[in-house]
Every structure is written in C-alpha cells, then in structure tokens.
Amino acid sequence: MLSAKTEVIYSIDSLDATAGSILNMAMDKRIWLFYGEVGAGKTTFIKSLCAHLGVLDNTQSPSFSLINQYLGSKGGESLDIYHIDLYRINHLEEALNIGIEDYLTENDYCFIEWPQIIEPILPKETFKILFEIVDHSSRKVLIL
Amino acid sequence: MHPDESSINILSIESSCDDTSAAVVQNGTPLSNIVFSQKIHEQYGGIVPEVASRDHLVKIVPVVEKALAEAAVDFDQLHAIAFTRGPGLLGSLIVGTSFAKGLALSLDIPLIEVNHMQAHILAHFAEKPHPEFPFLCLTVSGGHTQIVLVSDYLAFELIGQTLDDAAGEAFDKSGKILGLGYPAGPKIDKIAQKGHAVFTFPEPQIAHLDFSFSGVKTAILYFIQDQIKKDPTFIQKNLENLCASIQHIIVKILINKFRKAIQQTSVKHIAIAGGVSANSSLRAAFTDLGKEMNCTVHIPKFEYCTDNAAMIGVAGYYKYLRKQFASHNIKPLARYAL
Q1: A67-121: per-residue pLDDT in tens?
Q2: Are B9 and B28 in contact (CB under 8 A)?
Q3: What is the pLDDT of residues B19-44, one digit of tens each?
Q4: Most confident by average pLDDT, A3-17, A18-32, A45-59, B315-329
Q5: CA torsion, points A114, A120, A123, A124, in degrees to nearest 10?
Q6: pTM
Q7: Residue-wise pLDDT tens digits, B246-274
C-alpha cells in the first residue's frame, strides 16, 4: 500500500527492482514529479521505469530537448510516455509556451524532472518522489 | 507563373525546439539565416497579435519576412518550402509544419519535409569545401551525441550514440555542480583556458561506439563533495583546474570513440556538427585527430552548428533535386529516427 513518506535505499544492483515496486505503488497515478539535485539519480531511475513499461528505445536525458516521447506498453496495450525535464526553464510562461499543459493528461505517463517551476499549474493527482545521495553507491528515494 | 529553374530558391522553417528560424537557400547555399531574437520581437512588438499564445506562433511571421527580405527573394521566386518534421517538441513542430503547408499550398509549390538530425549533418554543405562521401560526422549538442556514417546526401547510418546524457549536458550539469549558471558550457571553455587538467576522472567503459556521460557527471559530483568536506573553499581555489579537468575528460571520451569509429570505417573525411563543436578544446582535439588519422577535417561556421533553418534549407535542396516532395497530409513526428 502507498503510505506517506515511504523511503527506500537502493544501489545500482537493486535499481530495477526498486523502480518496479515503486511503479506498482503509484498504481494509476500517471503524472510523476522527480525532485533531487544534479547527479541524484532521477534520469537513471526513469530509464528503469521506462524499461519496466516496455520501452524499447534508448532513453536519453531530455535536459536540452525538454520532452522526449517514448512508446511503451502496459497490460498488452500501447501507451505514450513523456519524459520531461524543466532544468533549463526559468519561468512558468516558458513552460506554457512550449505547450506543457497538453502533456499533463490522465492517459499517458509523464515523468517530470525539475518540476518546481510548473507546480502552480499541476493537477491535484500527482506522484511526487525525492532523490537523495546516500553515498557513492546508493541513493535514497522518498515518496512524498 | 513558373519561377526560373536556373537558381532554385528554397524557403526553410525550423521550429523543433525553442528557437524559431527561417532561411532562404539558393542552389544549396544560404542567402539568409534568421534565428528569432528579442530584437526582432521589439521591432514587430506592435504588430504581433496578442492572441498568439505560443512563442513560435508569435515569431514565425516576422522571422520568415526577415529571411526573405535579407535574401532579397520574393514569394513568387520560391521553388519549394522545406520544414523540420522532427524530432522535437510536437507543439513547436506543428506550428512550423502548418505554416509550411499553408504557404506551399497558397504558392502552389512543393513541400519538403526534413529530419532535423540529418540537417545538422548536411549543414556541412552550406559552404565549400564540402566533405567527400563517405564521411563520418560527430554531432554534439546539448541534446545529442551521435556518430553517423554518411555515404550520400540522403544516406545516413547511426553507428554510435549516447545511452544517457548528451555531451553538452555533461558540460552544463558539471558547470552547475561548480556553481556556474546555465548554459555553463561556454563558461567552462573560457575558464579552462587558464587551468590545467590536474584532476583525473575515469573514462566509462561502454561497448561498441556508444557514449555515456551520466557516470562522468556523478564522478565529478562525488569528487567535489569529498573535497569540499576537507576544504569548503575547494571550488573557488581550484576553479580553473576543475574546468580544465572536466573539459579534458568530456573531450577525451568523444575523441577516443570517434577514433575507434574512423578505424572501423576507414573513412578519409571527418566532420563535426552541433553547438558543442564551438568548444575550443574539442575543435583542437578534433583537428589533431584528423592529422593523426590522416583525415580531412570539416568544421562548419558556428551559425550553422546550432539549431538554424539554413541547414533545413540545404537538406531541402538535396531532396528537391531528387524530387522527394511531401504530401499535404504529412504530420510532424516528435520521435523521428535519423
């Protein structure tokens, strides 16, 4: 069951298992917010989530491209996954100008890194997770 | 009225990410290349409709008008409209695609769709000397790191790419760790010139011709965190050497993989494309690699390296020559393989 403040410490070896269990915990929540500093493991975690969701393409960081779109599948049905990174966006208006609202639908997965700037326009139902560096070989993921 | 076929004029539109750009390309050579700047915006400030909610919608008309004016080419002298079909942001691509379709339809001239990543490579044909086929191109930007074998104007084979972060991102994120603002790449380049690569970071062991920069970013982060524990002023004291060391490892990763690609393909011409090719250390290392491997090196002018419409027009010209025209029910593609 999903409880507030669940936290998991994982290493690179247990990354895929951790991502899999957190995917189950999120149940039908489709808009995920990823908090944490540079190097905290957000993109790497999303790569693993995408693999669980049947994405066959190379999952690259969208820090420059802002939004990467992947094709995944769940329960035999294909689904779109939007990997969004707002790292280099400075104002809410810039995010609105690239059409960010069009992606925030209930049907597709949206994995959003550096979401702080768009918090005012996010729907109520989101899945928030925070990444922290524990040491050189492990990370902590907190479900907020 | 049919325009004169002795000089083929193509109007090109690029709107794949956050820059809006238009260019006029004549027989494969750019006559103008306008990338939207705030200045144009001010110039048209009173005319831009308030209702336009998307940046590209606001920018596209003034950018196209300026591209035509600067090239001294009128609408009735155009032979085709070329546009970026993808990859990129769907909302942005729709604006460029719709605009191109509308214009091509109203002028009754062909429509040409262009792959943005192919266009980055074909930017090498904007000016002479042109690379000879087959050649290898290293495309390095904030969003891409690719090694492509080019055997013809329209024949590309992706033989290596990043598995995570792009090279430009490795510069920017390392710069963030050092407290340099975005974009940090050019700042690292400048500061590094005063320093030496005294700190070493491990080169990732990635199979084939692929790259990884995520591990390098983390290695830099750990190293700096450890040093700050011992001396909180570590970054300030060592900024020049840190920048030089970070630049050294990123360039080394790129060059070592590219050397391997040259050995595997036995090409005699090598080329570099994308915004990161402005990095002085990478340019120097790339030129040295050319000498070492006995290859002719091609580095385009910087304005053709970053996202721009001239490269879309150059690619459009080679498609025009082969009559590779698009139909009017064509849709933009956010994902579009090379």
Answers
A1: 888 999 888 888 889 999 998 888 888 888 777 888 887 788 999 999 999 999 9
A2: no
A3: 889 999 999 999 999 998 544 444 44
A4: B315-329
A5: 100
A6: 0.87
A7: 999 999 999 999 999 999 999 999 999 99
User: Would residue B111 count as lying in a domain?
Assistant: yes
Which pLDDT score is estimated for B262? 98
Does residue B331 lie in a domain region? no
Task: State whether B240 and B100 are in the same domain.
Answer: no
Asked if B166's CB is within 8 angstroms of A61's CB, the reply is: yes
From chain A, pick out residues whose CB is under 8 angstroms from the CB of B143: 62-65
Question: Choosing among A55, A57, A61, which should be mutated to test the B contact, i.e. which has the most B CBs within 10 A?
Answer: A61
Q: Is A1 inside any structural domain? A: no
Q: Mean pLDDT, chain B, as a whole number? A: 91
Tell me the two tokens of residue B71. Answer: 């090239």
All residues at 6 or more sequence positions from A65 whose CB lies less than 8 Å from its CB, including other chains:
B17, B87, B88, B89, B143
CATH number at residue B287: 3.30.420.40
> Is A132 domain-assigned?
yes
Average pLDDT over residues B164-178: 92
Considering the domain architecture, whether residues B79 and B15 belong to the same structural domain is answered as yes
How far is it, in rounded angstroms, from Cα B259 to Cα B270? 10
- Residue B54 — very low, low, confident or very high, per pLDDT cuts 50/70/90? low
- Give the integer Cα–Cα distance in Å for B292 and B309: 34
CA distances from B16 to B93, B114, B161, B308 (A): 5, 11, 20, 10
Phi, psi of A98 (to 5 degrees): -85, 0
Number of domains in chain A: 1
Q: Which residues of B touch A63 (CB under 8 A)?
A: 142-143, 165-166, 169, 172-173
| Structural domain includes residue A116 | yes
Cβ contacts of A47 on chain B, cutoff 8 Å = 164
Beta bridge partners of B162: B211
Q: In chain B, what residues touch A60 (CB-CB under 8 Å)? A: 161-166
How distant is the Cα of B195 from the closest Cα of chain A, in angstroms? 24
Within 13 A of B143's CA, how many CA atoms are on the CB side? 23
Assess contact for B114 and B315: CB atoms under 8 A.
Answer: yes
Cis preceding linkage at B129, omega within 30: yes
